[in-house]
Amino acid sequence: MSTSTLIDWSYSLAEKLLATPLPRRWAHCQGVAERARTLAPIVGEDAELLEVAAVLHDIGYAPDLAKTGFHPLDGARYLRHVAHADERIVRLVAHHSCAWMEAEARGMRDELEAEFPREHPDLADALCYCDMNTTPDGMPTNPVDRVNEITGRYGPDSLIGTFIRRAEPEILASTARVVLRLAEAKRQPM
């Protein structure tokens, strides 16, 4: 599949699964993909891969896909078994934004990690950066406000609220690594 065909396929699939039942989630995924395009200078050959994973990262929320209630796992399984997506995309979706910590809270970490090996840390950081710098409506934000928004939406004592607060230091470290890589890329002579 050519690059433009892969990107078109991913947007079409995400729109089909999310636009009608979850329009706000669809807007978020489009915003995350928009952030991904800005990281081309630091992800190089993986720029299209990152954009595809970004637009698909939350498809596990789609009502037709939600089997376990853990969206990274549900989305990754759909991408692997139904959509026959590239394994690197599948792994990025499975592990996006510190998913292992939420999986641990759900008692599913061993299942997640046995089924889906992690992708390269630089790409995982890049996808986390994109997700945590995008509001639910697809607009730019920052990771601190995003974590606060998630905690507020789900409640501080909920599984998600507890997970996101526990993950916050790693989310901030992950996004900081991306910001540093972007700054270094800008300093490089052309």
Secondary-structure map:
Elements: H1 3-18, H2 23-37, H3 40-43, H4 47-56, H5 71-81, H6 87-94, H7 99-105, H8 109-115, H9 121-132, H10 143-154, H11 159-187
How widely separated are the two ends? 31 Å
Q: Please report the number of helical segments.
A: 11
Quote the beta fraction: under 5%
CA-atom Rg in angstroms: 15 Å
Q: TL;DR?
A:
This protein has 190 residues and is mainly alpha-helical.
Structural commentary:
This protein starts with a helix and ends with a helix. It has eleven helices and no strands. It has 190 residues and is mainly α. The longest helix has 29 residues, at 159-187. The protein has helices spanning 3-18, 23-37, 40-43, 47-56, 71-81, 87-94, 99-105, 109-115, 121-132, 143-154, 159-187. Helix 1 packs parallel to helix 4 (47-56) and helix 2 crosses helix 9. The radius of gyration is 15 Å and the shape is globular.
What features would you highlight for this structure?
190 residues, mainly alpha, 11 helices, 69% helix
